[in-house]
Amino acid sequence: MNYTPPLEDIHFILHEVLKAPAQLQALPSFADTDATLMHQVVNEAGKFVAQAVAPLQSVGDTMGCKFVNGAVTTPPGFRDAYQAFWQGGWPALACAPQDGGQGLPAVLEAVLFEMLSGANHGWTMAPGLLHGAYECIRHHGSEALKSRYLEKVATGEWLATMCLTEPHAGSDLGLVRTRALPQADGSYRISGTKIFISGGEHDLTDNIIHLVLARLPDAPPGPKGLSLFLAPKLMPDASRNTIHCERIEEKMGLHGSPTCVMRFDEATGWMIGEPHHGLNAMFVMMNAARLHVGLQGIGLLEAAWQKADAYAKERRQMRAPKQVMSATPDLIGEHPAMRRILATQRAWIESGRVLAYRTAIELDMAKHHPDGARQHAAQQWCSLVTPVLKAAWTAQAFHGSSDCLQVFGGHGYVREGGIEQIVRDSRVSMIYEGTNEIQAIDLLVRKVLGDGGAGMSALLHDLCDGLDLQVAIQASLHAQADSLNQITRDLVHAAKTNPELPFWVADDYLRAVALTLLAWSWVQINAATSSRALSADPARWVEPARAVEYWILPECHMRLHIIKARLM
Amino acid sequence: MNYTPPLEDIHFILHEVLKAPAQLQALPSFADTDATLMHQVVNEAGKFVAQAVAPLQSVGDTMGCKFVNGAVTTPPGFRDAYQAFWQGGWPALACAPQDGGQGLPAVLEAVLFEMLSGANHGWTMAPGLLHGAYECIRHHGSEALKSRYLEKVATGEWLATMCLTEPHAGSDLGLVRTRALPQADGSYRISGTKIFISGGEHDLTDNIIHLVLARLPDAPPGPKGLSLFLAPKLMPDASRNTIHCERIEEKMGLHGSPTCVMRFDEATGWMIGEPHHGLNAMFVMMNAARLHVGLQGIGLLEAAWQKADAYAKERRQMRAPKQVMSATPDLIGEHPAMRRILATQRAWIESGRVLAYRTAIELDMAKHHPDGARQHAAQQWCSLVTPVLKAAWTAQAFHGSSDCLQVFGGHGYVREGGIEQIVRDSRVSMIYEGTNEIQAIDLLVRKVLGDGGAGMSALLHDLCDGLDLQVAIQASLHAQADSLNQITRDLVHAAKTNPELPFWVADDYLRAVALTLLAWSWVQINAATSSRALSADPARWVEPARAVEYWILPECHMRLHIIKARLM
Fold it and tell me: Which residue segment(s) compose the domain that B181 sits in?
C-alpha cells in the first residue's frame, strides 16, 4: 500500500477547523460552493489520486525517465495517468469557466495537489506549474497569445515549464544571459541555455509551453533587465521550434520527473508583459507556486507517516516500558521513542493543512473579496505565511520522513520499504522555488523589515485573538507571539546600524514564526476536536496535541534566544 | 576532487589538544609510540586513503555491487584496493604483534578509519568489522580456533562478518531463531537465515569468517539463550561450507557495500566462548564498533564539508550584506547563511575528533594502564561517551551533510556534485550498530540510571575541572553540566515511580550530554589554538568557535527544558 488519501482529516480541517464553505460562499464568485460540493470534489480527487497516480510511485523511482536523442520517455503508466488527469478536468479545477475551467476555489486545488504529491511527487511535478503558467498568461499575455494558449494551459492539454535557471544563475536571476532579439513580425529569437527545467521535454502531452526569462538587446544589467517570453515546443503550424533538450539530470530522487538542460537556439517566442518587467510577470506565480511546494511537504510527510504508522502497528520488538510489562515483545508503535516520532509528524501534518488551506482561502479572498480591507489582510497573510510554509514544511518533510524511516530500522534503508524514496524525493523541495534560506531572507529582510514590522505585528495580534491563558498551549502561543513581537521591534531597530545581522538570524526568525503559526493552528484544531467525534485512536489527535506542547514548541524559545543573544 | 585527508587538523587534535603521544607513552605497551611515529603513521595512512580508496568513491555508488547466482562482485577497483590495504598492514595496525599485528595504539586505527570513511564509506564497510572480530576471537576463541583464524583476521587476509539480525529480530536479538546442533566432533550444524549482513559475500578476499549468533537446542528463550559461533565460507580443507548468499539488498546508499541475506544450511561452525553467553562475547566488540560508527560520522561530515567549502569558494551569486556592498555578486561562502552552515559543521567535526580520539585513547587506558583507578575511569569514559558519539555524530553526519548539500542549491541534488551520495550513504549510520534511539536508551536507562547517576556525575565533574567562568564558552559548559547534573538526579528519582519516563526523554538526554561534551571539547580546542599558529583563514577555527556559542549550544538548554517539563 502506497498512500491512502486522508479524506477524513482533510474534510475535518476544511469544514470543522476552517469552516471553508461558509467563508468562501461569502464571496460572490463562490456563492455556489457549498459544503456538499466541496465534499464531493475532495472525495472524487481522492479517488483519482488513489486509483491513477499512487500505484505509479515505485515505478517512477525505479524506472525513472529515459533520454534518447533529445527525446524523453517518462516511466510506464505516466502518460496514461496524465491523459486521464487532464481529460478528467483536474488541472482546470480553479481556472475561470471562460478559459475552460471549473471556477472552483483555490483551496480545492490545494487539497488535490497535497494528495497528488503524497501519492507520487515525481508524477505531480508535471502538472505542478500549470496553474502558475495559466495565471501568468491570463494576466500578462496579449490577446493573441491568450487565444492560442490560455485554454490549452488551463485545461492541461498542453503542459508548461518555467525556464529561469542558467548554469551560472540560480538564486541570482539577475545573472541570466539568455538573449531575445526582436523580429519584424513582433516575435523574438531566443538563444541561451537553461538548466534544471522540470518537464522541459517529455511524452505526456503533444506540445509544451515554455515561459522563458531572457534579456532584450537594450536591457539594463541585473534583475530589472529581464523580460518574459512564451516559446512553444510546437509552433502554431505544428513544426518544431528550435528548442532542444540536451540531457536530463541524474538526481538524488524524483526520478519520475525529467530535469532537463534546454538549449534555445534562436527559438521563436513572444513577449509576455512589458519589456524588462519579466520578473513582475513571474511574481504573479510565486506565492501560488511556493504554497504548492509547502503542500508537497505536507503530502510527502503524510505519505511517510502512513508507511511508518502501518509498520509500527505490525512489527514487534522488545517489551515497551509500562507499569505492567508484557510477557512478549510489544508492537514498536508502543515504544515511547516511536510514539514520539509518529505523533510529532502528525502534529506538523495537520498544522500544515490548517495553514496551507487557510492560505489558499486567503488567496481567493485577496482576489475576490468585495471589501478592500479584507483583501489587504488576505494579501498580508499570504505574503507572510507563504515563505514560512514553504521553508518549514519542506524541511519537516525531509527531516520528518527521515524520522519515519528510523521507525523501520534497517528495513527503512532498503528500497523495498518505499520510505527511503520519500526521503530522497522530498529533499529537493527545500531547494526549488527559492531555497529555504532565500525564503527566510524574503520573510525577515524583505517583508518584515520592509514595513518596519507592521505587518508581522498585525499578524501576531490576530493570532492571539481570544486566547484563554489557562490552557497551556494557548498560553504558549501568547508568550511566543509576545516575544516574537518584541524581537521583531528590536530587529527593525538593530538592522539600521547592522545590516548584516538579519541575514545571520533569518533562519531562526522563520522557525520562530513557523512554530508560532503551528501553535495557533493547534489551538484551532483543539477547539474543533473537542466538539466532534473523530477517530478514537489517541495516536491520531491526542498524542499529536501533546507532542506540540512537549516536543515541538520548546524550539521556539531556543530560536528566540539565539536571535536575542545576537541583538545584545 | 573527492576527499583530501585533513592531516593538519588531525595532527593538531592528536598532538596539541589531546597530547596523545605523552599520554600513550606512559603505558608500557606503547613506550615507543612517540610523536614522530604517530605523525608518520597518520601521514602514511592519509597517503594510502587518498591514493587507493578516495578515487573509488563515485564508482562504488554508480556501479554498486552485483549479485549473480550466489556470487557478489564488488565495484571495479575495490578488490585491488583491498588487497593493497591488507598487504600494507593497515588492518593489523592495532593488533598484537604475536598475532601478526603492529601493536600500535587504537587511536591510530581510529584516525585511519575516520579518513577511510570520509573517502569511501562503502568500501570501508568491508574492513570495518575486522578489528572487532579479531578481539572477539582473541578473547573468547579456543586455542584451535585461534591457531586457524586469528592471524588471518588480524591481518585482514580474510574478512569477517557479524551475523546477528534475522527478519523478525533486529533491535531485539532475543528473538533470534537460528539453531546450532552439536556434533560428535565438537563442531555445530548451524541453520537459519540472517539478514543485513554487510560483506556476507564478496570477491575481496578468498575466505570470509562469519561470527553467528544462534541457539543451542537446550537454550532458554530470550537474549540469554544465544551462543556465538564461527563459521567460515571455506572449510579448512578448502571445500565450501553450506552458507549461501540469497540476495543483496537495494539500498538508499552505500552501494559499494553488499548487504546480504545469508542462509545457513546446516553449516559447520565452532562455538566461541561459553554456551548461552554469545552476547557477552559480542559485547567485547560493541564499544569499539560503536566508536567506529561515530568515526564514520566524523569522516562523512568532513567529506561533505570539503565539497561544500570548495563550492562556496568558487560560486558567485548575489551580493552579500556588508557595510560596503560589492558591485558584483559575491562568493556564496560570503553569505551569512552559508557561513553559518559551514562553520557549524566544522565545529561538530573537530569536536567529534577530540571526543573520538580521546575515547580511543581511553580504550587503551582501560586495557593497559597499570593503575586500577585510571583503568576504571577509562572504562567509565568509554561506557558513557561511546553511545553519545555514535548517536549524535551520525545524526550530524546526515543532517550536516544535508546542510552542505544546501550550499550547492540545485547542483547539490544532482549526482554529479557527489554531495548527495554522502547524504544517502550516511543515513544508515543512524541505524546500524544499534539505532540512535537504542543508544539513547543505553546511555540513560542502562548506564546513567544503572548506577544511580554516579558515573555521569563524576564525568560532568571532570569536564568542569579548572574552568574560567569569565570566558563565555567555559561559563556555558559549567552551566550546562550543572543543569545536567541536577536533571540526572531528578531522573534517577522520578524513574522509581515512573519507569516509562526515561524512555520518553532519552533522546533529549543524549543530545544534552552531546552538547556538553561538545562544549568541553571546544574549551580544549580553544586553549590549543590560542597557543599555536594554525590556518589563518577565520573560517577554519575562529568562525567554528563562534558557531559553537551562537548556534549550537543553545540547543542544550532546550533539551534540558524539555526533560524538566516532563519531570514536573
Answer: 156-280
